[in-house]
Every structure is written in C-alpha cells, then in structure tokens.
Known about the structure:
The protein is α+β, with helices and mostly antiparallel strands. It has 3 domains: 4-200; 209-281; 308-427, Histidine kinase-like ATPase, C-terminal domain (Heat Shock Protein 90). 59% of the residues lie in helices and 9% in strands. α12 packs antiparallel against α14.
Amino acid sequence: MSSPRSALARLLPPGRARDLTADAVVVASGVALSLGGDGGTIVRPHGGATAALFLIPALALAFRRRAPMTVAWLTAALAALVWIVEQAAPGTLLRVDADHTLRPPVWWTPTAPLAAYAAMAFPRDGARPVWIRALPVAAMLVLVGGGLSEILPAAAMRRFSAQESDSVEALVFRSVGVVAVAALIGMYAAARRRVVQALTERAERAERERHLLAERARAEERARLAAEMHDVVAHRVTLMVLQAGALRVRAPDEPTREAAEALRGTGCQALEELRDVIGLLRRGDTAGSGPLPGPSGPPEQPDLPDLSALVAESAAVGVAVELAEHGDPPSASPAVGRTAYRVVQEALTNARKHAPGAAVHVDVRYRADGVTLTVRNAAASREPDAELAASGSGMGLAGLRERVELIGGTFTAGPHLDGFQVEASLPAYVPVANP
Length: 435
C-alpha cells in the first residue's frame, strides 16, 4: 500500500503547478485563521478595519517562497502592533472584557506558524545563515510569549473560555509551541531539499562523467582504427595501385592495358575514400601516423555527385524512379558527396530487393549549408524474390546511419504510408583531421 504522502503527491499536480496549489492552500488557511471562522473571535471588528489589518500578513503568504523573510517580519510586526496598541489603550483591538459567548483562538497571532515555517523552509539563493532567518521567528516567540499575557488578563480569558480550566498561560504555551514546531519543520524541509538537490547534482555529474568517459573510449577506438587502416590497408591498396600502373606500362596487348588502367583507377578512388574515412575517424585527435601515400595535387572544391546515373541504372532494370532536385548544389566536402551517393544507392538497392514493381521517388533538396535526401518507395506490386531479398549482410541501413552520423548528419529510415522511406540530412562541409 502506498503511503499517505505518495498518495497526496499523485493527487497534486507536478512541478510548478503543485507549488502554486500548495501556496493557494496556505493563503486560504491563513485567511480562515485571521477571520476567526464562525465569528467566535477576540478581535474587535471596527467595521472590518481590524479584519483587513489581520488579512495583510495572511495574503502576504502568497509570496512566502520569493520573500519569506519579508512575510515573517510582517507577521512579527502585526504582533508588535497589537501589543503596542493594547498596552496604550486596552480593548482597542481585542475584546478583553467580552462575555462568555466568545472563545479564545487556538494560538496567537493567527498566521505566525505559517510565517515561521516559510522563513526557515525557503532560504533564497545565497542563503542567509540560519540564525539570521530565525530572527523574525524569535521576535514572534518573544511577542507571543511575553506580550500576550499582558494584553489578555486571566479574568477575561476565563470569560472567553467559559471554564476555569483554561487560562492565558495555556494560550501562550500553545502559541509558542506551535510557532516553534512550525519553524523546526521548516528547517527540516530546507535541509531535506538541500540533500535532495545535492544528490540530484551528484547523479547528473556522474552521468556527465560516464558520458565523457564513453566519448573518450570511442575517440580512442576511432584513433586505433584509423591507425590500423593507415598502416595496413592504405599501404596495401597503394601497392596494388602501383602494381596495376606497372602492368599497364608493360602489358603486351590493349585489353590487358585497359584492365590494368581500370584497376588502377579503382584503387585510386579507394584511396581517396579511405583518406576521407581516416580523416573523419581522427577528427579531434591531434596524433597522426603521417599522410596517406598516393598522388597529391591542388585542393579540390567538389560539388555533390550527379545522381542521375543511379536513377538511370534503376530504370534500366525496370524500376520506375522519379528524381526531383530543388535548389543549387553547394560545394561540399568529398566525404559528404560520397555519403550522399551511398545513401541514394543503398535506398534504391533496397527498393529493388524488397519492393519489386514499386515506384520510387528521390527528392534532393540542396541548401547553402548542406543537402537533404529523401528516397521513398510505394508498396510492392508483387512478391519479392526470396533469394534476392536475403542476399547481403543485412547491415545496409545500420551502416548508412553510422556513416551519416560520422560526418555530423542525421538519418531516419522506416515505414511511410504503405511503403518505406529513407531520409538523410548532410552538412556541406565536414572538417577532418589531416590523415
């Protein structure tokens, strides 16, 4: 079974709305105590003027979170005012000579416990020491304990209560006790709030530290992979390119020279892509293993790739593909261009494999700072070929997501209406480390 506190927490609205609800309840309680409920009050009405005076600290409780010290001092000032006026002219504000039909309050002054709680429970930012926040509470205790017995004679109290067992001392004891207990509860609430806040900050700091450690581990792993690719793969591919170039020179017949040239060109393209990947892996890592071997030249300012060739390939195998381009292609990093090409290529391949006969729409929106690619296919018009659908590693979309996120883009893929949609947003420029 849930505790009463947890049940109350479920009934009250969360967060700021809960605080406002609690403040409204406190203000309503202060107003009810100040007005005396059923009319059995020791306060002289004076046409409502006295009631209005006592309502001031009650209504001020609405600001108990933002100005708790002001609310507490205002309540203490009301107690001091009553004491001064009654000392100067007894019976002006209180009915000290009233008949037995009136009863005394449970404690005095009406809002003192609520103000004492606020002063101790809601320290402002850069909180004052506890002894400073306790000053208005001490003032209320002195005024209640020392002044109440002077302005309420014992004979008048017996007439109020209509019984000899009650006394002014009993009212003073109740008032002092209630104010002191309210202040102690406020101190507990403030201490508990500080502990909860400290634990929350500690948990958030631990979460940030775990995130930083995970980022560091990923960065170290990327650096290790980049070093392995640089030291092993890149040099092997470079050796293949050089051997293909030598074969092209020494080949006795034209077909062999053409095959060697094609092999050399493919190897050079692989080196370019490998250079981009290593640069991305080393981004943010100042350590390096030297440049990739291979031809060097002036820096390029390439544009995004022409996707019409991919569309033509799909159309050649019977897939109805519509290409829509919006805007002017910006200059982009080579890694961005190749990633855009791979996104469209993989999406068209998946459409051919898993949605045969479906129309495919490729939407390309160029921006000054990047490009957004959307490949959407309708539902398949016939059953896909089981062997063709099962071919591949099954990691195409996952690999695309990693590749897109590696260059700082976003990637989504999933069902759309009755078909499937792949969408990638890529930046135009990706800073890479010098590989």
